[in-house]
Design brief:
By secondary structure, the chain is an alpha+beta fold. The chain has 2 domains: 4-52, Winged helix-like DNA-binding domain superfamily/Winged helix DNA-binding domain (Arc Repressor Mutant, subunit A, Orthogonal Bundle); 57-136, Alpha-Beta Plaits, CATH 3.30.70.920. It has helices at 4-15, 21-28, 32-44, 80-86, 112-123, 150-158; strands spanning 64-72, 91-96, 103-109, 129-136. It is elongated, with a radius of gyration of 20 Å.
Length: 161
Amino acid sequence: MIDEIDLKILTIVQSNARVPNTEIAKSVGMAPSAVLERLRKLEAAGIVKGYAAQLDPRQVRHGLAAFVFVRTDDRVGEARAGKALAEIPEIQEVHHVAGEDCFLVKVRVADTTHLAEILREKIGRIRSVKSTRTTIVLETVKESTILPLTAVRKEKKKRGE
């Protein structure tokens, strides 16, 4: 299970995955080799899924974000449309949702012309897609991949650990 030191390590790594082990070790009061061992265990357990550079979308011609609700005629439990959506490079996220729509996807493109092309040429060509509703992002106030680990701490406290 995850202990308090693991939580501290995860908090540091989430904020900056490039922090050297020696710096993490100082922060948590351990040897760098012990921190490396813990990180490897967290990776092996699938808690740490990977490390990635975060690019500024505007700098790489993907400054327009949009959320697209996708309705399909797939039968319950079928994953064909979701898998097809996930294969489109401009789609960053694919969420199977409850409600009238089947999927909510996050798209990053250069401009509205590029968005129209994705909707028409890629999403629209998926055989089971019946309709889409698109919301264009005007301004992003917050976008983060950092998960608050307070719920894990509360659960541990509740169990008396």
